[in-house]
Amino acid sequence: MKPIIPNEIQEYLDQHANKEVYIHLETTTGAYNAHQNENSMTVVAFIRNAKFRYSLAKITGFGPFRVGLKMEEGWTYAEGLTDFTVDEQNRLILAGHHPDGKLAIALQISTVPFPS
Amino acid sequence: MSEHVLVVLPHPDDESFGVAGLIALKRKAGVPVTYACGTLGEMGRNMGSPLFANRETLPLIRKRELQDACRAMGVTDLRMLGMRDKTLEFEDIDLFADRIEAIIQEVKPTLIVTFYPDHGVHPDHDATGRAVIHALKRMPAEERPVTYCLAITKNREDVLGAPNVILDIREVAETKMEALKAHRSQTEGLIRQMEEDFKKGVPQVMNWFETETYWHYQWNE
């Protein structure tokens, strides 16, 4: 992973517009959040291998970044993205990390399913 | 019957935090230990500082760390059950229990260690404990191996009473530290803090390497 370079992300997003893609979208406080701090709720959500097609996609912001994917009948959105990689399988792995390296949000795009 | 320990926990590192002392003591005494680990901690949050993992590479890294930790503790038989982190409570409990039962039938453990259902804090911990108890409840009571449960909720003693087993692990403290260190992606920051506290003699951290506590499962509940 390396700090986000918006142009590289935008290029990937454009290349995959109007194609069938698999999404992994996730955000998490960590499962022990409420155990460690009773005033705080544990909140975790993820969806893996949601299959869809977006017609328009943009990365915006000045860091941390936001990504919005416009779908035929809705939107997919992620905020707080800091780091990325395009891996050897040409999957776009976007993540937002706390300064200590803990993952807070992930948005990933692939043309083939992620391992279940 | 010859002794055999079976540890059933969901995440790589659960065993090092909770059971490394017991495992190391048993191995010192020549007792074989089977560890069935439910997942590869696919949804862990620690990606390293500086970053060295991402959501897709993490399972591969944690698999290697799990194997390293098992080597450090001298686990003789590691079973990776291949389920996915954060999903265990949604699995079919009968099928989950079937897999545990198959291992029980095969290795014939004299002692089983798992999480105390409802006292594991993490839903995967509770689901794993529940599946183990579910499997054991199918067996005649007199055939069930001794069952030690880890309980980590804040109200554990209010609900369960005092722990039944208080294990002095000081002679294998170093092994426990090595096992924890093997889980680098999860424990690096923690161990840095721990080593500082250890030097200062902070009681809470000292306790980690001195004692492990377990509760017998209360079958009649």
TrEMBL record, chain A:
InterPro entries: DUF1806, YojF_sf. Pfam families: DUF1806 (PF08830). It comes from the Bacteria. This is YojF family protein. It comes from Metabacillus sediminis.
Automatic annotation (TrEMBL), chain B:
Its cofactor is Zn(2+). It comes from the Bacteria. This is Bacillithiol biosynthesis deacetylase BshB2. It comes from Metabacillus sediminis. Pfam families: PIG-L. InterPro entries: BshB2, GlcNAc_PI_deacetylase-related, LmbE-like_dom_sf. The gene is bshB2. Transmembrane segments: none annotated.
